[in-house]
Amino acid sequence: MPRLSRKEDKAKDSNASTDDNQASMSTQAGVLTWEERNLSSPTVFSESRGHYKMCLDVEVRNVTLPQYISPLPLGLSSADRDYLRMKGALNIPKAELRDALLECFALFVHPLLPVIDLGDVYSRIESNGRTGTVSLLLLQMVMFAATAYVDIRILNKHGYNSASQARLEFFNRAKLLYSLDCEPDRLAVLQTVILMTLRSDQPDLITHTRHHISVAMTRAQLINQDPAMKISQRLWKRILWTCYMRDCILAISFQTPMIIRYEEFDIPPLELQDFDAASWLRAVHWISRHTGNPSGNLCNAQTLAKLCIALVECCQRISYGLNCQYGTHPGEDGFEEELVTQSLGDIAGSKRVIGRFTQIYAEINVEDPITGPGAKQLDSVSLHEYCLQEFRSEQIATLLNTVSQSLMGIESKDIIALGFLHYCKAGTGFQAVISDTKHGGQYLRIRQGTQTISKFMAKELKEGSLWLSTPVTHIEQCQDTGVCIVRSANEAVFMAKKVILSVATPFYKTIQFSPPLPTEKQRLALENILGYYSKMIFVFQKPWWRTAGLSGEIKAQDNGPILFSMDTSIPEDDQWSISCFIVGGRGLKWSKLSREERYSSACSQLRSGFEKVELESGKLEVPEPINTLEYEWTKQEFFLGGPCPASPPGLLSSVDGAALCKSFENVHFVGTETSLEWKGYMEGAIRSGDRGAAEVVAELQERF
């Protein structure tokens, strides 16, 4: 995962106590990302006597929230508000129970889960909102966390027969608020998700609890990337290390691997100065005033901080053992050798393979690959032939065929060695393109699907400027006027000074160019190939593989069409799925089967792959999926196959190295394959688009 520390100037660090106050449970004014579906207006304040005061209570039908509670989002529908009221999610307990819960949280929960600024939060409650408001979502979760420690007599007095009953009710309140996106403050949501990991007292909650760690780290990543979010370094370190501690403790409890990889967690160690003793003392003094119990002192605060630091250090040591036991070990140069069937880590001489590839692609000129030393030789042989010649190992050749299929949907015998190595060079290295670690090409996913990015970008365009389902058939460049005329299959006609073409080279032959494309571009269009790519998604009622402590991955098996699979579940939506990728030659054969045969062969392979795993609890039984989705990119009009075209032997050395990216008069080419970095990926598409836009702007400025 990328480093999650936040850069702050010395002035901010020297005044971290003030920053901690600003980064508590109150609503932030930070810019919200598209992934937050319901936006709300900032809290309305009026200025009076040097401080801010809430103007009015927030009324929700018959429930009036206290003034110290942040308003619900304005975008929340009346039906959702009624549902929240009916389910009790808007209820705040009477002062006696509330104060008892806050006391228990400060004394028994916060010391080892220091994710909020206690003093600031409690002072906001005491001032009844005059010094700021508190997130309803986070307050409900704080009270849930404290129910395990509060005096049962107080719970009985307020209608609860047991701590378990109170615990379940407060958790369900918070969960409902979370599910309906009632909190726009991303920091408060992150703090809430971390506290959700305390709900792990029942076996059927194991999967959900572990996933909260993953969600927390993903949300932390999003916050870290937003410069508008102002969070003190001290609070940020406490939050991240709390995630690490909870992940380790849950892994031990459930006998599963950690979600956070110890070798990637590069957050500076916790120190005493990261704990705000003054804030904790303000909280316990507030408790003393409201409950009559003795308050703490500075010695208590320092002792609790040392205890938390010691627990972190203990978790660090334990995590190394967990990673050794459950599956991944870092190799040289940060390459992760995974302990899976047919992985590179299982093959003798794997370091020699990586070393040789690293040496070769270091010499490749990414702008003109054919100009590097030995490039013409690499352009004359397929990747399969090269592996046999260089390493004299059928096993290594087979492995690289698996990698080639996974990345591009192309058999290693159908792609030249130079093209494959250039692909790796553009992806910043062989390790990076196949890795799902923080610098890898397979890192992170988008909950709503990558198409969401395009949809939100489209909303920013001028109405009528985007035409969908309008495939281009003709591009004519008028030599006398310099105008381009673009015609589509549905007879729409467009005129422009410039045309930017973002499709892959094999698509060029579906468009009639006038005048015709240069010979070299025509050759690229005719001879470049796209691999076969499809996926089948199996949706299940429950995440049975997670409950068993498995990753949901199978790799490089020969007993069926699936080359690899991955867990693509979205727990927030209660959607549990495994996506199976069927690519390359085996996928092409599979695609010719009937729908029933395709489903049967893929499902059978998935079942056999998991049921042969030996577990301490016995044989794993794979249930029938409740739904199956199939996407065959090769048959989709604007895909036609894998993510990036490949060239046959001899093509690159027989054309100008700049031919791929070079514009043709007023037509500019920006397919992801033209990118010098991360070609074949969305990153490459963005970079090539930036390059094409810069070309167009420069030429138009020069001309006009």
TrEMBL record:
SMART domains: Fungal_trans. Residues 14-28 have a biased composition (Polar residues). SUPFAM superfamilies: FAD-linked reductases, C-terminal domain, FAD/NAD(P)-binding domain. Residues 209-275 form the Xylanolytic transcriptional activator regulatory domain. Its cofactor is FAD. Keywords: FAD, Flavoprotein, Nucleus, Oxidoreductase, Transcription, Transcription regulation. GO terms for biological process: DNA-templated transcription. This is Amine oxidase. It comes from Aspergillus caelatus. The lineage of its organism: Eukaryota, Fungi, Dikarya, Ascomycota, Pezizomycotina.
